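Subject: for your reference before the review

Hello V.,

The reviewers asked for a structural picture of the protein, and I figured it would be easier to keep everything in one thread rather than splitting it across files. Below is the amino acid sequence we used in the manuscript, unchanged from the supplementary table.
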Amino acid sequence: MAGNDDTPQERRRMVRPPSGGTAAGRGMGGKIKTADTKSMSSQQWIKRQLSDPWSERARAEGWRSRAAFKLMEIDDRLNLIRPGSRVIDLGAAPGGWVQVALQRGAKAVVGVDLLMIEDIPGAQLIQADFTHPGVDRQLIEALGGAPDLVLSDMAHNTVGHRQTDHLKIIALIEIAADFAIRTLKPGGAFVTKNFQGGDAGGVLARLRAEFDDVRPIKPKASRKDSSEVYLVARGRRG
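And here is what came back from the structure prediction:
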């Protein structure tokens, strides 16, 4: 892809599964009960989750994660999820975005993640490494046709080395963008996680060449101290 001489296969080798856990591990279930056995950083994360108003609201309203509110805000602003649409969610665990897509009228939703996702009525959920050959075709077959919307909230395990972590972030964005460009219906849309300050120039250039409108959005549900931002591309050119 633009801005990187590595082949897609070489970039995909940079993506590794989490070291352990399940979809519930991104929520609160098991972590609260075993907080005293966790590291200090893990305990601080748990306390932050418990005191976070968006997480509290997600639990109260039955959303799988606080990330549901991020997608809802993006959709409220740009009307991406339309009744009868087909949606693919990359990095779907624990399922908050899948829930939102279904609640807002999508007729077919397929989610994929390295972690197991508990069943969500109305959606097909696949436990697999999206970067492995053949998984992209599996998603399209499960969806029953080309998607109207591709979502990617994929993340990776950081190693603490800034340059390495940055390369892994960009690799995931590039792989998701490539999939969206190859599979979306004309007029379709793509949403992917990015981080402010990250060099995603090559991806941005390609998205701007393939979509009518590309813009960054930082939802209110993103933590204020986080550099997280979402790239939204609309109007896939035919």
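For the response letter, the relevant points are probably these. The two ends are 20 Å apart (CA to CA). Residues 68 and 110 are 16 Å apart (CA to CA).

Happy to draft the paragraph if you're swamped.

O.
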